[in-house]
Specification:
The protein is an alpha/beta fold. About 35% of the residues lie in helices and about 20% in strands. The longest helix is centred in the middle third of the chain and has 17 residues.
Length: about 290
């Protein structure tokens, strides 16, 4: 964990800047920083961040692409360290109106998007520009290490030998396709790949599997198979780590899966107690495994 608290220009402890996407994670990380004695300042990105989860913290709203405005805000607040956390939605290029400081960045990002670059490249591009301006980018797990998945089972249920075989196959496939920046999630049942994350996002593949089972395209009885999630090879751990939450477990249950496997220490769990409670209620296993296999 990052323990050094930097000072602002007045000699006071500098607040931690949190660049906020959507979901529950921005307030979870902000609360973790506050518990450790760190002041926070949230930069809420319009179209990403959820107003109801941001308002109780010191914050300002910004439009995506206004990199110069973000720099000025952070400098005015005395921030030196910053983290990116929360769900992001890849914008249509025509929806982004960058300021002068953001134009060069967005030219780079447009090239990445046209080559199929992922959301982590969008975030890391913004992060690199802010680092060049003198800010220090941290991973959210450095501020709140408790958000990372531990090894082993989260709840009561345990995977079967077939489940573990499916998990191992899923990890091998993700490792193979990772260099192509395809995605972080896969669904495998009885060693058959049912779905691989693409542009739709990780939770949507569960709905796709549920549809395949309901229309008879996939004939499996009972709870079988698992959703596996892993960081892409070479991905910067400070940006867009794989994430699961209670809604992920509900989606796996609707898809008729036996459980979910994530890579321990490489996956963020939004509200681990709630994840375990939903898994127990639905009768699903949730496990943290090693990256090289189950």
């Amino acid at each position: 964990m990052h323990n050094e608290h930097r000072l602002d220009a007045t000699g006071q402890e500098a607040p931690l800047a949190i660049i906020c996407g959507g979901g529950n994670l921005p307030p979870i990380v902000a609360d973790a920083a506050i518990r450790r004695g760190r002041r926070v300042f949230l930069v809420a990105v319009r179209g990403w961040a959820d107003p109801g989860k941001i308002e109780r913290f010191p914050h300002r709203w910004v439009n995506l692409g206004k990199i110069g405005e973000i720099q000025r805000l952070l400098q005015a607040e005395g921030c030196r360290d910053l983290v990116f956390i929360g769900r992001v939605l890849r914008p249509a290029i025509r929806q982004v109106w960058p300021d002068l400081a953001g134009i060069r960045l967005w030219l780079r990002i447009i090239r990445l998007m046209r080559r199929g670059g992922g959301d982590d490249q969008l975030l890391s591009g913004i992060g690199r520009v802010l680092e060049e301006a003198g800010f220090h980018v941290l991973g959210a797990h450095e501020i709140a290490p408790e958000i990372l998945a531990p090894a082993g089972a989260f709840g009561r249920e345990r995977p079967s030998e077939q489940d573990l075989t499916d998990v191992a196959r899923g990890l091998k496939v993700l490792a193979a396709v990772g260099p192509f920046d395809v995605g972080q999630a896969i669904v495998v049942a009885r060693e058959r790949v049912l779905a691989l994350e693409a542009a739709e996002g990780t939770d949507h593949i569960l709905a796709r599997v549920a549809g395949l089972r309901s229309n008879g395209r996939v004939c499996l009885s009972g709870k079988v198979g698992g959703r596996v999630k892993a960081r892409k090879p070479g991905q910067d751990r400070r940006f867009d780590l794989p994430t699961i939450g209670p809604l992920t477990v509900e989606g796996a249950a609707r898809a008729g899966l036996a459980g979910i496997a994530v890579v321990a220490g490489e996956t963020i769990v939004a509200d681990a107690q709630a994840v375990a409670a939903v898994a127990d209620r639905q009768g699903l296993f949730i496990i943290g495994v090693r990256a090289e296999g189950a």
